[in-house]
């Protein structure tokens, strides 16, 4: 386990192993009124040896439709980092983003 994986775990990321054997680190920051992002996911990428990290930040909201409730993605950001330090700095910055006042008072 690399140093960057330990730092992600210290930031409350959860390690997940997918069916295809790939490993993701996922953070669900909290309620959408307190946190801008719904989910932040990190995946190490590169062939033949992994040398970069894909950071995906997604914001979803629940919307009530006529017949059922939908989980709609409102915003998504995907960035590939080649430096573990820059990746961690970006994640810390993304975690610090807060929703606007109007987003806080909406449903």
Written description of the protein model:
- The chain has 107 residues and is of the alpha+beta class.
- The chain has one domain (3-100).
- The protein is 24% helix and 39% strand.
- The protein is built from three helices and five strands; from the N terminus they run H-E-E-E-E-E-H-H.
- The chain has helices at 3-10, 84-96, 101-105; strands at 14-17, 23-27, 39-45, 52-64, 69-81.
- It has a five-stranded antiparallel β-sheet.
- A hairpin with a 5-residue loop joins strand 1 (14-17) and strand 2 (23-27).
- It is globular and about 50 Å long.
- The model has no long low-confidence stretch (mean pLDDT 82).
Strand order of the largest sheet: 1-2-3-4-5
Largest sheet: 5 strands, antiparallel
Termini gap: 41 Å
Tell the overall outline.
globular
- The helix fraction, in percent, is 10-25%
* Gyration radius over CA: 15 Å
**Average of pLDDT:** 82
Number of DSSP-assigned strands: 5
Structural class: alpha+beta
What are the segments in which pLDDT stays under 50 over at least 5 consecutive residues? none
Beta strand %: 35-45%
């Amino acid at each position: 386990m690399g140093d960057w994986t330990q730092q992600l775990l210290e930031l409350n990321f959860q390690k997940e192993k997918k069916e295809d054997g790939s490993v993701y680190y996922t953070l669900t920051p909290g309620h959408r009124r307190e946190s801008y992002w719904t989910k932040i996911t990190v995946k190490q990428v590169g062939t033949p040896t992994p040398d970069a990290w894909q950071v995906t930040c997604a914001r979803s909201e629940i919307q009530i439709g006529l017949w059922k409730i939908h989980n709609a993605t409102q915003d998504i950001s995907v960035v590939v980092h080649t430096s573990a330090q820059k990746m961690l700095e970006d994640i810390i910055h993304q975690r610090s983003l807060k929703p606007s006042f109007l987003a806080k008072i909406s449903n």
